[in-house]
Amino acid sequence: MTDLIAQNSYPAAPPPQAPSCAYCGCGPTVNATFRGHRGIIIVMQFLKQKGPFCRDCGISTFRTMTSRTLVQGWWGYASFIITPFILIWNLIQRLKLNKLGSSTPAADGNSGTPLPVGKPLYLRATIAGLLVPLSVIGFIGYALAFGGAESRIGQCIIGKAGEDVEFVSCDKPNDGKVISVADTEDACPAEATGFVEQYIQRKRGRETKLDGVLCIKE
Contact, 90 vs 62, CB < 8 A? Predict the structure, then answer.
């Protein structure tokens, strides 16, 4: 005789366990990937560390990878384009860790100590690496705003020779257009109908120096 077994008499399968941290075995965790970049003129290295991460190990990895990239990530031929994207990527991955609670040991005791989180990025000496791109951007901005006389070619002016002039768009009413730059007024091309002397102020004191003669055509 065959005994009938109730349909639900088998024990239910245990619920799937959340993955533990790949670095210490603690939980809770989140999947994330932190990246780094190292540029050495024509040689570039692309680094990454994958999770899952608990909160402490994730923060530690984020700070370490980002800190190194701030110093090493600007010196390759394409690093100035690549490194900002790496830094933004790491910030996005860092936001995932905000959803996690404190790192706790695994229930079965099969876990270690989470990585030390270390100092925040803004308290590390490597934050000085941000001065590299900021300096370059500042230099370019200064050159565009306060460039030499050659930067005035193609611009239009309001004012006459011997007066202070204002540079304006050539779409607006003006008194002429800068067609070239010369060392003296006599060196201006024949089509020039006037000139304006441009001076620059030295860093020390109020001494000025002739930067060039702007040749104007009305």
Answer: yes
Distance of CA 27 to the CA centre of its chain: 33
User: pLDDT tens digits for 47-60?
Assistant: 999 989 999 999 99
Cβ atoms < 10 Å from Cβ of 128? 10
Task: Evaluate whether 189 touches 215 at the Cβ level (below 8 Å).
Answer: yes
Burial 87-98 (b: 16+ CB within 10 A, else e): beebeebbeebe
How much is the pLDDT for 65?
95
Q: Is the pLDDT of residue 84 over 60?
A: yes
Going along the chain, which residue ranges are E strands? 33-40, 43-50, 156-158, 166-168, 176-182, 194-201, 208-217
State yes or no: pLDDT of 116 exceeds 60. yes
d(CA 9, CA 155) in angstroms, rounded, equals 89
Asked whether the whole model's pTM tops 0.85, one would answer no
Strand-pair partners of 73: none
Query: In whole angstroms, how far apart are CA 68 and each of 39, 126, 157?
Result: 11, 7, 49
